[in-house]
Amino acid sequence: MSGYKIGVIRGDGIGPEVLQEGLNVLEAVAALDGFHYELVDYPYSGSHYLETGELVPESVIEEWKGLDAVLLGAIGHPDVEPGLVERSVILGLRFGLDLYVNLRPIKLYAESLGPLKGKGPDDIDFTVVRENTEGLYVQIGGRKSVGTPEEMAIVTGVYTWKGCERVIRYAFEFARKQAAARGGDPGARLTLVDKANAIRPHQIWQDVFDQVAEDFPDVERDHQYVDACCMWMIKNPEWFDVIVTTNLFGDIITDLGAMLQGGMGIAASGNIHPGQTSMFEPIHGSAPKYAGENVVCPLGAIAATAMMLTHLGEDAAAARVEGAVARLLESGRIPSVDARSGISTSAMGEMVLAELET
Ligand code: IPM
Ligand code: MG
Q1: What's the pTM?
Q2: pLDDT exceeds 70 at position 197
Q3: How confident is the model over 101-110, as pLDDT tens digits?
Q4: Does residue 1 have a pLDDT over 60?
Q5: Which domains are seen in the chain, by residue range?
Q6: The one catalytic residue among 207, 210, 218, 255
Q7: Which of 81, 89, 90 to mutate to test the pocket of ligand 1 (most atoms within 8 A of CB)?
């Protein structure tokens, strides 16, 4: 029977163990909600590079375009030059498949999990839409006269009108859809985050934002500079509904956001090109010191699997997984979403599986 074709990159460190819990959940909801799929494993990782010298070949990026989605565990190995494999695999997927949206929900399920006094689930519930194919990540530039007193490094950020337009439009549509799903109360608010007061070319973001906003009169517009955004995320996280921002700022503020949710262990992301092959991953890295210990939290990988199900149009299955994770965290049975919860990776995966049928 035909079904989805899903690429799997287990990766390095804790990647394989957390991803396995996501795959167990996928298998369970496929049976419960009646869909079929096939997994295609890819070995790319820092350890694969150390063994074989191989990074992601161009032909594999072409092959990925024929999949419905890719699930990724984590990439990064302490014995490999920083960034080499991350750029090949993670950025290879983002740039190679033109995954221009990096969707990063920030939701606190129980006040006890969060670090802020008096801020609970009603206060911390927003989404960051991170631009994913431009900005400083394009990495135009380089270093000159390395190791001499004349050494210099140059890196140029790239922001095209088209690149800003498509991600800002996605964010407006996303904000509108989410507000409709909660019955319009509260209404949709989209906050643009840039640094145009110091980096004047960032003004392009505001110009595009103002133009696209004309098509979304129902969405309240808001603007913050990124430094102030960090301050407001701690002081008044309840202000935020949806944020749209540049690649680098999105990277930074979503680690802050992950901590608002209780920790990196629960944060998930979708690298999306609407209607095309997209990639889903937990936000955390490979955490080599915990590799193979069966102690880290797999909820980020499980939540990424739920995001993949939404992308595939399996809404009932996605809601089932999200509901299971939410109930589990709300029940207080999971004291923390880090490596010190006292609940093993596999046991937590099983707790989610047990919740799926209720
Ligand atoms: C992320 C990560 C990546 C990024 C790294 C691993 C290249 O931090 O997905 O947030 O910078 O985008
Ligand atoms: Mg990051």
Answers
A1: 0.97
A2: yes
A3: 999 999 999 9
A4: no
A5: 1-100+266-358 (3.40.718.10), 125-260 (3.40.718.10)
A6: 255
A7: 90
320-325 CB contacts, 8 Å cutoff, 24+ apart? 320/29, 320/32, 320/33, 320/356, 321/25, 321/29, 321/352, 321/356, 323/355, 324/352, 324/355, 324/356, 324/358, 325/109, 325/299, 325/352, 325/355
Residue nearest to atom 10 of ligand 1 (CA): 251
Instruction: Indicate if ligand 1 lies below 6 Å from the C-beta of 69.
Output: no
- The active-site residue, picked from 119, 195, 225, 241, is 195
Is 78 within 8 Å of 285 (Cβ atoms)?
no
Omega within 30 of 0 (cis) for the link into 186: yes
Q: What is the pLDDT of residue 332?
A: 94
Mean pLDDT confidence for 114-126: 97
- CB of 281 sitting under 6 A from ligand 1: no
**Number of helices (H), then strands (E), in the chain:** 11, 12
